[in-house]
Model the fold of this input.
Amino acid sequence: QVQLVESGGGLVQAGGSLRLSCVASGRTLSSITMGWLRQAPGKEREFVARFGRSGGTTYYADSVKGRFTISRDNAKNTVYLQMNTLKPEDTAIYYCAASESAIVRWAYWGQGTQVTVSS
Done:
C-alpha cells in the first residue's frame, strides 16, 4: 500500500508560480512510478507529468511543457511539481499518483490539492 499526501495548492494570479508537494509513505520512491494529474471543473482527469520507471526520465503533457517541472527528494520520499507562468486554464485539482506496475497504471492517489489561477 502507498499513501500519498499533497500540499501546496492555492490561489495565484496568472503568470505566477506555485510548488506542489507529495509525500509518499508505505513504499520508497525508487520502487514506484510517481506522477501528477489534474482535473478541471467539468473535465476529465488528465495527465500532467511523471517520472519514468527508473526515475531518471521525465514526461510532460504538451500543455505544461516548459512551464512545469517534476522533481523528487528520495531522502524525504517526496515528489514536487514546480509550476511557473501559470495560466487560468491551469486551474484544477491536482493529484499525486503512484504506479507499481511496469506499464503505468495509477493505482494510488492523493486527496488532491486545489490550484486556482486568476486572470
In short: The two ends are 40 Å apart (CA to CA). The first strand starts at residue 3 and ends at 7. The mean pLDDT is 95. The chain is about 0% helix and 50% strand.
